[in-house]
Write a structure and sequence with these properties.
The chain has 62 residues and is α+β, with helices and mostly antiparallel strands. The protein contains 3 helices and 2 strands, in the order βααβα.
Length: 62
């Protein structure tokens, strides 16, 4: 297992998303069962999407 920041995943797989994510989102700790080196692009996108949802679940939209 390896714990990394979401920003590492974003920078490796989707660097164009950095400007659209908040600092708390980018600073999220992510635990990877098989480590960062084994992470694939599809899995990375799923992790990024889940993290965004988790940070916005208590947000009230007007």
């Amino acid at each position: 297992m390896e714990t990394i920041k979401l920003s590492q995943i974003v920078m490796k797989f989707n660097p164009e998303l950095v400007s659209t994510l908040t600092n708390p989102e980018l600073d999220s700790s992510i635990v990877l069962r098989n480590g960062f080196q084994a992470l694939e692009a599809d899995d990375a996108l799923e992790i990024i999407q889940f993290s965004i949802c988790e940070h916005q679940k208590d947000t009230i939209l007007h």
